[in-house]
Design brief:
50% helix, 5-stranded mixed β-sheet, Trna Endonuclease, Chain: A, domain 1, alpha/beta, 2 domains
Length: 159
């Protein structure tokens, strides 16, 4: 009896180690831990088919690879904040928008207010399709950073 139990435990440990070395636990499916930049590039190349939630997780993985600590907050009751990003003592509230069109000023307003709720001094809106004129004007007056396609590409190149 104890031999079967020991064999089962060793089997589970082996499976965990095997998955870890294949990189299935790193947040980016089907990639190895040795080269997250390549995995992120591949994911970004397929970003047009990402759902909003997949885009949030992609951005979390990208920001982690860029050296930030990231907590995924998104969901109901998130106060307009999808990610809380930390770098040292710096806390940034991030709203991710994966729309097929430029994002309006509602996202800027939401993340600005949500940042105050979480105690973040900075706030960003990330949207690959860009921003409306109204969103750009509101972001300038509130200090919210807007990151479009070029900003995401820049982060990828820095990884």
């Amino acid at each position: 009896m104890w031999k079967k139990l020991l064999a089962g435990i060793l089997g589970i440990v082996g499976l965990v180690v095997w998955k870890r070395f294949l990189g299935e636990d790193n947040g980016i499916q089907g990639t190895t831990q040795a080269n997250p930049a390549t995995a992120l590039q591949r994911a970004w190349a397929k970003s047009s088919s990402m759902s909003g939630q997949e885009f949030e997780h992609f951005m979390a993985d990208l920001l982690r690879a860029a050296g930030y600590k990231v907590d995924v907050i998104g969901g109901s009751g998130d106060q307009g904040v999808d990610l809380l990003v930390k770098q040292g003592r710096r806390l940034i509230a991030v709203q991710c928008k994966k729309y097929g069109r430029p994002v309006g000023n509602a996202a800027v307003s939401a993340v600005y207010a949500g940042a105050r709720c979480y105690g973040a001094r900075e706030s960003w809106v990330v949207a690959p399709e860009g921003f409306t004129t109204g969103a750009i004007e509101l972001a300038k007056s509130t200090g919210v950073r807007l990151m479009g396609h070029k900003g995401i590409d820049g982060l990828l190149q820095g990884v």
